[in-house]
């Protein structure tokens, strides 16, 4: 592609350079530059791409885009106000992803993005529609899981546009994080449907305040098409505020008291969960084959999305009843001799804790044992609240390690011991040992929650050398001598 075509939608001064040169690729990583590439220098959080411009040129980059004022390069250089925004538009133009020919669904919120996205995908596929998915567990296009693309929940703009160009799917679902929005990873994409699941304290190490965190989430809806549909959980106060802003210019479907509604008291627990759902003038029965009070909320959001794309209520509800769940999201395992339940869940906020633990209470758990920890270098302000919520529901708390994230073991260990568990718990830093302790201490009728990691692999090694919470539990289930 000619450079002048790539720069068409980018605000740059190109009068002093040859822009008739051919660009054969785009890169924002100097180690991956190939001859003929356009290199985009990003001012990152760990490193500054401008430091690697010379390396990119030596590797064959034919032009450079960046934010700094540079004049002595041997190839054309174009200064922009924001390299991340420029990269998103360049990638869209270069890959010509034809995203306008697909129905693009974006989901944001603190909790529930992954489960809701899997539910929507399941409904669509049960109804014979093809669907791509970009999210935290894996990315899927054309029915195939794309490996090596899930370092971040929302992949960067360059990789996203590259994958969208390959997708022949009718629908595309994208989990959109607040980090992705502030870093313009979905820049240039026009969404047909945008969902807001909820907001609770998280990532304040990055956003600093809840207002700033909400503002980041809110920007997804700036990319909603003029005739697009917003789907909002107005049981959440932040969602209610968002609905007020959006309903003046967009069609808005809401899950709340005045529209598609239910109450927690309506939820029926057996081996399944069911709830009576009031949708305007119609009443429906929603049944799920897996547990977790929060999954009722996720299912209703998926139901509303199906409604927005004109799938009949009956088809949507039938599909939801056959949905089997998501890896690392309220995955239930039974102790082979005692029948106690072990639940692995990604929950890492006080709101997610509450929904998980309330489910166990509602289903008559004899005792609740809760294993969790905190990620090093992340939002420290939510830690005490998480402990308090767990204390209000749990009979035994076991504080353990999560990802260290470059924080020393000694510092995180000291942090774990700093919390007053009021005689309800203990600290076992080794995560696998913590799970083994609970396994050996459990009784019939107990529910043991292992939260924080979900489907993710361990970021550091433990004495028993298992690599995930699921592998640890499965090993315990399959041997009489645990490790």
TrEMBL record:
Pathway: Cell wall biogenesis; peptidoglycan biosynthesis. The keyword tRNA processing does not apply. Its EC number is 6.3.2.13. It is found in: Cytoplasm. One of its GO terms (molecular function) is UDP-N-acetylmuramoylalanyl-D-glutamate-2,6-diaminopimelate ligase activity. Residues 107-305 form the Mur ligase central domain. Residues 22-95 form the Mur ligase N-terminal catalytic domain. Residues 328-454 form the Mur ligase C-terminal domain. It holds the Pfam family Mur_ligase_C. It is an enzyme of class 6 (ligase). Keywords: ATP-binding, Cell cycle, Cell division, Cell shape, Cell wall biogenesis/degradation, Cytoplasm, Ligase, Nucleotide-binding, Peptidoglycan synthesis. PROSITE patterns: FOLYLPOLYGLU_SYNT_1 (PS01011). SUPFAM superfamilies: MurD-like peptide ligases, catalytic domain, MurD-like peptide ligases, peptide-binding domain, MurE/MurF N-terminal domain. The keyword Translocase does not apply. InterPro entries: Folylpolyglutamate_synth_CS, Mur-like_cat_sf, Mur_ligase_C, Mur_ligase_C_dom_sf, Mur_ligase_cen, Mur_ligase_N, MurE/MurF_N, UDP-N-AcMur-Glu-dNH2Pim_ligase. Belongs to the MurCDEF family. MurE subfamily. This is UDP-N-acetylmuramoyl-L-alanyl-D-glutamate--2, 6-diaminopimelate ligase.
């Amino acid at each position: 592609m000619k450079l002048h075509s790539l720069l068409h939608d980018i605000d740059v001064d190109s009068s002093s350079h040859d822009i008739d040169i051919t660009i054969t690729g785009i890169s924002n990583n100097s180690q991956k530059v190939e001859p003929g590439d356009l290199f985009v220098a990003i001012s990152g959080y760990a490193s500054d791409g401008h430091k690697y411009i010379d390396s990119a040129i030596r590797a064959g980059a034919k032009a450079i885009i960046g934010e700094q004022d540079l004049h002595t390069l041997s190839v054309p250089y174009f200064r922009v106000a924001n390299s991340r925004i420029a990269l998103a538009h360049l990638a869209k133009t270069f890959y010509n992803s034809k995203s306008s020919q697909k129905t693009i669904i974006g989901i944001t919120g603190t909790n529930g993005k992954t489960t809701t996205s899997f539910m929507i995908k399941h409904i669509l596929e049960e109804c014979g529609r093809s669907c791509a998915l970009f999210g935290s567990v894996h990315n899927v296009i054309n029915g195939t899981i794309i490996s090596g693309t899930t370092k971040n929940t929302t992949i960067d703009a360059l990789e996203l546009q590259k994958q969208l160009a390959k997708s022949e799917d009718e629908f595309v679902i994208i989990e959109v994080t607040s980090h992705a929005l502030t870093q313009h990873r979905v820049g240039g994409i026009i969404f047909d449907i945008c969902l807001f699941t909820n907001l609770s304290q998280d990532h304040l190490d990055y956003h600093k305040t809840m207002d700033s965190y909400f503002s980041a989430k809110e920007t997804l809806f700036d990319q909603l098409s003029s005739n697009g549909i917003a789907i909002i959980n107005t049981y959440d106060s932040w969602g209610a505020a968002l609905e007020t802003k959006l309903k003046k210019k967009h069609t808005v479907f809401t899950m709340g008291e005045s529209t598609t509604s239910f109450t927690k008291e309506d939820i029926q627990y057996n081996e399944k969960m069911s709830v009576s759902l009031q949708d305007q003038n119609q009443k429906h029965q929603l049944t799920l084959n897996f547990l977790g009070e929060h999954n009722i909320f996720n299912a209703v959001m998926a139901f509303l999305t199906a409604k927005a794309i004109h799938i009949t209520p009956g088809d949507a509800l039938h599909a939801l009843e056959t949905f089997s769940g998501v890896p690392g999201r309220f995955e239930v395992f039974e102790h082979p001799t005692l029948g106690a339940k072990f639940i692995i869940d990604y929950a890492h906020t006080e709101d997610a804790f509450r929904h998980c633990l309330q489910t166990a209470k509602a289903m008559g758990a004899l005792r609740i044992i809760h294993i969790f920890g905190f990620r090093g270098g992340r939002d420290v302000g939510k830690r005490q609240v998480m402990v308090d919520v767990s204390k209000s529901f749990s009979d035994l708390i076991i504080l353990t390690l999560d990802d260290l994230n470059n924080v020393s073991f000694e510092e995180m260990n000291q942090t774990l011991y700093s919390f007053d568990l009021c005689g309800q718990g203990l600290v076992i830093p080794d995560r696998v040992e913590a799970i083994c302790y609970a396994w050996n201490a459990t009784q019939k009728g107990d529910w043991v929650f292992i939260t924080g990691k979900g489907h993710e692999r361990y970021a550091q090694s433990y004495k028993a050398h298992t690599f995930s919470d699921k592998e640890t539990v499965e090993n315990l289930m399959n041997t009489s001598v645990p490790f």
